[in-house]
Amino acid sequence: MEKKHTVSIWYVLIGIWVVLIIQSYIASMLAVKTIPYSQFMNSLKQGKVTEIAISQGEIQGKMKNAQGALEDFKTVRVDPELSKVLEQYNVTFKGKIESTFLKDIISWVLPVFIFVGIWYLLMKRMAGKQPGFMSLGKNKAKIYMEDELKVRFTDVAGVDEAKQELEEVIDFLKNPGKFGELGGRIPKGILLVGPPGTGKTLLAKAVAGESGVPFFSMSGSDFVEMFVGLGAARVRDLFVQAKEKAPCIIFIDEVDALGKARGLGGMTGGHDEREQTLNQLLAEMDGFDPKVGVILMAATNRPEILDPALLRPGRFDRHVLVDRPDKVGREEILRVHLRNIKTESDINVESLAAMTPGMVGADLANLVNEAALLAVRQGKKLVGMPEFQEAVERIIGGLEKKNRLINKDEREIVAHHEMGHAIVAMSLPGTDPVQKISIVPRGIAALGYTMQVPTDDRFLMRKTELLNKIATLLGGRAAEEIVFGDISTGAHNDLSRATDIAKSMIKEYGMSSSLGQVYLAHDRRSQYLDLGLQEAGDYSELTSQAIDGEIRQIITGQYKVASDILKEKRDTLVKGARLLLEKEKIDRGEIEALMEATRA
Ligand code: ADP
Ligand code: ZN
Question: Within a 13 Å sphere around the CA of 358, how many CA atoms are in the beta-carbon half?
Answer without folding.
Answer: 7
